[in-house]
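As the next step, I selected for study one protein, both as residues and as discrete backbone shape codes, as given directly below:
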Amino acid sequence: MAEQTNEETQAAAITQKILPPAPTYEEVLFYERKPAGFWVRFWAYLIDLLVIAGLTSILIKPVFAIVGLETNDAVWYAPYAILSALVFYSYFVFLTKFFNQTVGKMILGIRVVSLKEDSLSWGTLLFREWIGRFISAVIWPLYAIIGFTPLKQGIHDFIADTTVVHEEAYRKRKMMQKKKSVSSELQETKAF
């Protein structure tokens, strides 16, 4: 009987050398910025449209009035429409690049963040603001998907791997993390 226990002990020791013990997990709480939902983004966009309308009225209409050109042409390729579109897209691209938010987002306390990079690159911004906004403007019901995605992303956010978050609101998330063993904690303290 003593021999079997000794053999079992030796087998268990050999098994432990071959197979390390299974890692244990612990639940860790962390905080992340809360994604901005549909309505706060909608109101920010309306504020931005008012700002853009003001910029267009101040910068472009007087020039067209002085030169004597029409500003009422309804076609998309009219000079006034092209310059207005240039102001529209430039507004979103430059403000988002330099401030990570437009005036509407500043007022409502939200900002654009990249999901993959630390800062927003020019390529990311051009995809998000030009191509994504064009798609959202042409097929406007697609803008409503913001309300149904976990990170509150629109089509333009999916294209550019971005999302819009509240600047000062956080949400609590739980995550399972591998529990550190005592020996690995000792090694980390010795490294310092």
Summary: The helical segments are 2-18, 38-59, 61-67, 79-99, 103-108, 122-138, 155-160, 182-191. The chain is about 55% helix and 15% strand. Residues 38-59 form the longest helix (22 residues).
